C-alpha cells in the first residue's frame, strides 16, 4: 500500500491497528546502460510488492544516496555522509513521532551502508522502536538465487537488468565483461574510476533471460515480505 495512494485520514486509521511501515532507500547514480534511478526503482518496487498483500504503508523512496565514486559520470548525484545520516534521522524520527514503531528499511544501494552502522545510535534514543535494515539484493535467499543463476554478478550488470530498469532504445552489450579489480578501484578518485570502468558495469553479462530474472525477483519479494511478517524482535 503506497503512501502516495493514501490520504492522511487513511494513515491515521491504519495506525489505530498496526505500527509497521516500509521506508525504501535508493540512489541516483550511473548504472551502465540502465536507468540512473536503478537503485531507487528496484528498492521501491520490491518494497511495494512485498507489502501490498499485507496492507502495510510504503513511503516514497529516498532517491539520493552516498555515491562519491561515480560523480565523474553525468547524472550521478551524491550526498555527504553527514547529510545522509541527518536525513535518515529526520525520516525515522518523524515516522516514530507519528506512531510507527516497526520500520523496515529496504535499501537498494550499497553505498548507503553508513546508515546501517548509524542505526544503533538512533535505536538507543528510541528504545521502543524496532528497525530492520534490509539490503534486498544481497539478503541470504535472494543472493543465493543470484549466485545459482550466474556467479559473476555485480554493480550495473545483469543482476540489476529488469524490465523496469531498462531504457527504451538503449541496447545492452552482449559480451561478458571481466570483473574489475575492486581493491584497486576503491583507491581511485572519480575521474580515474570512470577511466577504469568505462561504461560502469563492474563485471559480468549486461543481460540474462527474463525467466532467470523473474525467479530472482520473486525470491526477493518473498524474502522481503517474510521480514515484514515475522522479522520483528520482541
UniProtKB/TrEMBL annotation:
Keywords noted in UniProt = Hydrolase, Metal-binding, Zinc
Required cofactor names: Zn(2+)
| Lineage: superkingdom | Bacteria
Q: In this entry, which stretches build a coiled coil?
A: none
The family assignment reads: Belongs to the creatininase superfamily.
From the Swiss-Prot or TrEMBL record, give the protein name. Creatininase
Species in which this protein is naturally found: Deinococcus carri
Amino acid at each position: 500500500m503506497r503512501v502516495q495512494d493514501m490520504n492522511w485520514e487513511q494513515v491515521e486509521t491504519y495506525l489505530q491497528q498496526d505500527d509497521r511501515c516500509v521506508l525504501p532507500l535508493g540512489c541516483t547514480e550511473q548504472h551502465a546502460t540502465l536507468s540512473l534511478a536503478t537503485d531507487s526503482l528496484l528498492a521501491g518496487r520490491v518494497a511495494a510488492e512485498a507489502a501490498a498483500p499485507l496492507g502495510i504503508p510504503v513511503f516514497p523512496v529516498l532517491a539520493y544516496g552516498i555515491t562519491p565514486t561515480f560523480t565523474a559520470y553525468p547524472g550521478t548525484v551524491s550526498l555527504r555522509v553527514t547529510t545522509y545520516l541527518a536525513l535518515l534521522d529526520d525520516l525515522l524520527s518523524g515516522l516514530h513521532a507519528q506512531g510507527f514503531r516497526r520500520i523496515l528499511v529496504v535499501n537498494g544501494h550499497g553505498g548507503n551502508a553508513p546508515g546501517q552502522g548509524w542505526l544503533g545510535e538512533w535505536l538507543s534514543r528510541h528504545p521502543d522502536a524496532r528497525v530492520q535494515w534490509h539490503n534486498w539484493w544481497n539478503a541470504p535467499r535472494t543472493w543465493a538465487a543470484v549466485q545459482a543463476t550466474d556467479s559473476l554478478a555485480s554493480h550495473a550488470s545483469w543482476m540489476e537488468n529488469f524490465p523496469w530498469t531498462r531504457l527504451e532504445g538503449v541496447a545492452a552489450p552482449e559480451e561478458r565483461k571481466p570483473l574489475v579489480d575492486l581493491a584497486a578501484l576503491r583507491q581511485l578518485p572519480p575521474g580515474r574510476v570512470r577511466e577504469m570502468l568505462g561504461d560502469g558495469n563492474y563485471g559480468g553479462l549486461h543481460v540474462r533471460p527474463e525467466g532467470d530474472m523473474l525467479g530472482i525477483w520473486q525470491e526477493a519479494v518473498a524474502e522481503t515480505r517474510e521480514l515484514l511478517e515475522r522479522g520483528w524482535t520482541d
